[in-house]
Amino acid sequence: MVLHFDKERLVYGVKESINPVLWDSDTKMPIQSKTKLSAVLKKNKDIKKIDPFVIDATLPNLVSRLERIKLRVRAIHSNLKTQNVPIDKKTIKEALDNDTLAPNGIWSNKTKSKSALKRKEANEDHIFKNRSPYVSDAIKEFIELIDNGIITVDSKDERSYAKSTVKNYRGFEAQFEAFETKQKRKFKFEDITIQFRTTFKNYFIDKKYSKNTIGRHIKHLKVVMNKAHEDKLHDNPDYKEFDLLEVRRKNVYLTMDEIWHLYDFDLKERPRLVKYRDLFIIGCLTAMRYSDYSRIEKSNIKDLIDPQDRRRKIKVIDMMTQKTNTRVVIPVHTELVKILEKYNYTLPVVHEQKLNKAIKEIARIAGLNQIVDVTDVTADERTYNKAEKWTQLTSHAGRRSGATNMYKNGIDGISIMKLTGHRTWENFSKYISVSEEEVAILISKNQFFKGRKTALKAV
C-alpha cells in the first residue's frame, strides 16, 4: 500500500497479494470490469486455467478489504490531526504498527508490534477507555469511536458509519447536553429508566419536535446504551424497553413525464441553474443518494457482457456507496450518458443545501405546481395540509422518484433494492411512493388476476 500525504510517500505492507495482471492501473484496484477481466484472461495463459468462478468470488472480496484498509488509514490520519500530532512517515507508520482497534481482518496478516502485545498482556479489552458512570461521557466517546472506524455499523461486514450518521450523533450529543442543562443534573446509566424516557420525550414535545426526530434521538440513546452494556459499563436493561416514535409520511416523487419536463425545460435565462438540474436528473435516473452519484467518475462506468447474448454490452455504474459501503451495479440510462459526457465525466461539485434550494426554484419556474397532500407531524399533533409540489422537492426526491418509477415500470422490489443498496424491505418500502390504487392497477395486469383458464375437454 502506497500512502501520499503532506508531500510525503510511505510504502506500507498489508500482506494482501494479487496477480499483477488482475490489477487495474486506472482505478488502482483489482479489475472489476467483466469486459476487461475477460480480455485479461484471454491474453494471459498463466492464469487462464483458474476457475472463473473463483476469480469472481475473490476479486470483490479483495476490493472490499482494500476499501476497509483505506477507510482505516484515513481514520488514523484524521485522529492524528485531531490530536495535533506532527504527521510524517514515522508517526503514520507507528500508528499503523500499533493499530489494534481496526475492524477485524484488515491487518489480519500483520505481525503485532511490541506496544500492541503489551496492551494485550495488560488485558485492555474494553472499547470504552473512559469507564465513567455518566451517559454523556459515553456518548462523547462513542462518537469518537464511530468517527475513527473503531466501532462499526455491523460487526459481520464491518461497515463504517457514514459521515452523515456521525454528524447526526453529534447533533444528538448536543441535544442530550441541553436536556441535562434543563434538568440541572447529569444522568448515570442507572438513571435511564422508563420514567426517564417519558421525561426525555416530553422535553422534545415542548420544543415542538416531530415524532420522527424524537424517535431518532431515542434510537441514538439506545444504540449508545447497548454498546456500553456490551462493554460492561452498566447492567441496566431498562433502555431495551424504549419504543421508538416514527410516523410514515407520504413522500413526494416525480413521474417520468415530470422528470423529462424538467430535463427539457429551457434555462437559458438562468444558466446558473443548469448544473443543479442535471445533478437532480442523475438522481432520478439512478435512484442513488446525492453523496454517491455526485462522486461518479469515468472509472465507475463499466461494460458488462450479457451471458445470454455475448454481442450485447450493458453499460453500468459500478461503485461502493458512501453511507453503507455496499457495492451497487446500476444500468446506465441513455440520457444519463449524455449528462456525464456533457461534463466530461467530472460532475460539478455543489453543496447539497444549495442543490435543494435550486431544485425548488427550477421546479417552480417549470410549473410543477400540482397540489399535493402534506402531513406535518409533531410528537403530540398531526396536521394535514396542502402544498404545491415544487415546495416539497429535495435531492432525496430524486432517489425516491427513481425507485418509484422503476417499481411502477414493472421492476421487482428485490432487484431495485440491489440498485439502491437497501438491505431490508422495511427501509426500502419507505422510498416507494405508490398509492394503494396504483398498486392495485399494477398487479391487476398479472396473470393471477386474469381469470380462470378453461380446461381442455376430452372428446
Neighbour order of strands in the largest sheet: 5-6-7
Number of strands: 9
- What portion of residues belong to β-strands? 5-15%
- As a whole number of angstroms, the C-alpha radius of gyration is 26 Å
| Percent in helix | 40-55%
What order do the helices and strands come in, and which of them pair?
Elements: E1 2-5, E2 8-11, E3 23-24, E4 29-30, H1 34-43, H2 52-82, H3 89-97, H4 114-121, H5 135-147, H6 163-183, H7 194-206, H8 211-230, H9 256-264, H10 274-286, H11 290-293, E5 301-305, E6 313-320, E7 327-331, H12 334-342, H13 352-365, E8 371-378, E9 381-388, H14 395-408, H15 413-420, H16 425-429, H17 436-443
Antiparallel strand pairs: 1-2, 3-4, 5-6, 6-7, 8-9
Helix pairs in contact: 5-6, 5-8, 10-13, 10-14
